[in-house]
Every structure is written in C-alpha cells, then in structure tokens.
Specification:
Length: 326
C-alpha cells in the first residue's frame, strides 16, 4: 500500500523549522491577544515555502494559459466546422493542442501539486490531540507536540474545527462557541478568497471557447467555493489559515503577473473583416480606444464673382489718386 508518511514528515519538518525560527527571533511562546503567533506564523510561512518551490510551475501555467488563449480563434473554427460531431471535434482539438504544444489541464497543475501539502497539514493537525500517546511521530518532540496542541487563534485551538465534538473540545480545553465563531468566520473568508482568485483570472483572460476548458473554469469559479460550505466544517482551524493565506498569496501573485504580462486581447472581427478589409486595432496606451482623426479635404480657392460691365470697383486699387471734385 502506498504510504504518505514522507509527506507528513516533510510538512512537519517545515512547520517545526519555522516555529523554531520564530522562537529564536523572540516571538512570545505564550498567547498574545489569545493567539500563539509562533505557530500561526509557522503555518503562514509554510505557504510561502511551498509557493516559492512551485513558482516555476506557476510560470509554466501562465505560459500555457497564454498559448491556450492564442489558440482560441482556431478552436472556434473547429467548433463551427464540426458542429454536431462531438467526437471528431474532440479529436481535432487534441491534435491541435498536441501540434501547438498546449495543455488545457496545465492551468490546474499548481493546485493539484498543492493537494499533497494540504492533505499532509490536515493529517498533521488532526493528530494534535492531547489524548494521543504517539506524540513523537514525524519528527515531533513531546514538548513540540504539546505546544502545538494548545496553540490558539483568538482563543480557538488551531486543531479545533467547526464540527468538533464535545469530547474533542474538552481534550483541547476549548470553548465550543468560540471555536464555532472563529472557524465560521475563517470558512467564509476561505470561500470568498477562493472565488476571487478564480474570478480575477477569468476577468482578465475571458471565458474559454473550448467547452472542456470552460467547464474547468466554471468548476473553479463556482464548484469549489460551494463545496467549501460543507467541507470547511471538518477542516481544522490551522488548515483554514493555510488555505486563506494561500489564496491571498495567489491573488497578489496573479495581480503582479497580469500587470507584468497582460493577457492577449482577441481581435474582434466586424463587417470590414468579412469583406476582406483590415480591421483597426482598438486600445492604445493604457488600453484606451484610439480614434484616427478624419482626413481633411484639400483646400480650394474661393470663387470670386466677376464684376458686372459698367459697375464701379468696390475696392479701388491702392496708389491710384482719388479724383478731385470740381
């Protein structure tokens, strides 16, 4: 049977290393404002550690998304060509992706790689029960285990959860109402930030033309946040802290990448394009629409009416002496 112990050892080592670092810096061990900050910071910097390791994968994700966006016109052509023939459409699109070296699933790769980290932290924090006898598993000392088991966020233990039983709360020495309030607020923040991370990317890149990729976008935008309403009740508070921190990190990272490498803006085709005429590109500096000034008609000399025969000139020529009246 496949063992996940190596993940539990790795997550425990990162947590304990960061906790020791904050302890050495001088972060108080005792609770301040009902919070043991050394353990909270250890969870936050677990996120930082994982995201730094996965940054090259994130860069590949952005490149893949750009490649998929550039292929949207060709995908749309295939959809029009094979309308009603789903099997041929899928075959042609897979061939297109293979030829252009684009992977529609690359956008989910960073999330998939973080699943083992999430499971490892979930398992590790669930073990933080003072009633456990095997406290030295995964490299923990008894002192570290007891310290983490009693670590709190605003008086709610990080090992507690919204759905904790009365026996679990009693072993953790926690108040049930406090745990539910803290966990409930964190779950709502987790849902909101999960939705915003997906919405941020879709607003910048737009909805995909490929039905498969569009389904993935809808799942990321709506499916996962809705599922957290239920699953969030079984997550320990420490795991929710990890999730929220990871979402905030993602929001900042995506904002930086989207500003530095703005997504491609698809060229809209109109009547001119259909008639074989070039279409002017919209969007000048800062993305504002620019309009070309209308060409001025060449200036023409004004028409001057010829004087009628026998009429006196209106403007006598200069230099000619005026006639004296006798």
């Amino acid at each position: 049977m496949f063992s996940l112990d190596w993940i539990y050892y790795a997550i425990s080592w990162i947590l304990l290393t960061w906790h020791s670092a904050w302890d050495a810096i001088g972060v108080p061990v005792e609770a301040v404002i009902g919070t043991n900050w050394s353990w909270i910071l250890a969870i936050i910097f677990l996120v930082v550690t994982v995201r730094v390791i996965l940054f090259p994968v994130f860069v590949k994700q952005i490149k893949s998304q750009r490649a998929m966006q550039a292929l949207q016109p060709k995908v749309k052509e295939l959809q029009e060509k094979h309308k009603g023939d789903r099997e041929t459409l899928q075959k042609e699109m897979m061939e297109l992706y293979r030829k252009e070296k684009a992977n529609p699933l690359m956008g989910c790769l960073p999330m998939f790689l973080q699943i083992p980290v999430f499971l490892g932290l979930f398992h590790t924090l669930r073990r933080l029960d003072p009633g456990k006898t095997q406290k030295t598993l995964y490299g923990w000392t008894v002192e570290q285990f007891d310290s983490a088991a009693h670590a709190k966020l605003f008086s709610a233990p990080i090992a507690g959860k919204f759905g904790s039983t009365a026996d679990e709360l009693a072993r953790l020495g926690a108040n049930g109402h406090t745990v539910k309030i803290v966990a409930g607020v964190l779950v709502l923040i987790m849902i909101a930030t999960t939705y915003l991370t997906s919405r941020q990317m879709i607003l910048k890149t737009g909805w995909a033309e490929d039905p498969q990729q569009r389904m993935v976008q809808r799942l990321m935008l709506y499916g996962i946040p809705v599922s957290l309403l239920v699953s969030g009740s079984i997550f320990p508070i420490g795991v929710i802290i990890y999730w929220v921190t990871n979402n905030l990190f993602t929001l900042g990272q995506q904002q930086w990448v989207l500003r530095k490498f703005p997504p491609l803006v698809p060229q809209k085709t109109g009547t001119a394009a259909k008639n074989g005429q070039p279409v002017a590109k919209s969007g000048g500096l800062l993305g504002r629409k620019t309009t070309q000034p209308a060409a001025k008609a060449p200036a023409t000399a004004p028409k001057v009416a010829a004087p009628k025969p026998g009429a006196k000139p209106v403007n006598p020529k200069k230099g000619r002496p005026a006639k004296r009246q006798g």
